[in-house]
Amino acid sequence: ETAVFQTPNYHVTQVGNEVSFNCKQTLGHDTMYWYKQDSKKLLKIMFSYNNKQLIVNETVPRRFSPQSSDKAHLNLRIKSVEPEDSAVYLCASSPGLGGYEQYFGPGTRLTVL
Amino acid sequence: GEQVEQLPSILRVQEGSSASINCSYEDSASNYFPWYKQEPGENPKLIIDIRSNMERKQIQELIVLLDKKAKRFSLHITDTQPGDSAMYFCAASRSGGSNYKLTFGKGTLLTVTP
Questions:
Q1: What is the structure's pLDDT at B7?
Q2: I want to staple B2 with a disulfide (CB 3.0 to 4.6 A). Which of A45, A63, A111, B103 is the partner?
């Protein structure tokens, strides 16, 4: 049963364009995340958002920015996409920070031409 | 930050045998160790986790062992079935704190052959 929703499922765009991905969770969780999963299936945390506090993975390029209107929504904007941004972007949520199961959404597959 | 090493990257076993995946971590403050299973085209799902106050946990055919001194933990799948074929990720984190981050291993592709 899906409780973390992501749109779109797929997105194809060209280098330099701006893209936005949406994520919504209906679990009542306090914490949301964005992960990047590359073609080798490596899973890397990009952002954590908890109680209006943003925790950024220091390796994330500045063209990536999360946007949250409330604790049930965490969107991801990429200002000017690069070819290396092609990946699956997974949104997740958990009841809180640390030591909790994370529930993942279905992912958004981004292809940058 | 935390680094998690996971081996092997590819594992092929025969149906009915056991499969073992090993992970090691660096941060001695890590106290939560989940395992996620990701089937092709699907999102990762938690299958079992263990906290630092335990050394062993079992859920049906899944066994997780934690050795805090050696900073190693492992997943053992007994009596494997074709449905166990998937990517498996170990992860480690410390609870709470502003610098909380769940660090994943690189994954193990498990194939169970009939």
A1: 98
A2: B103
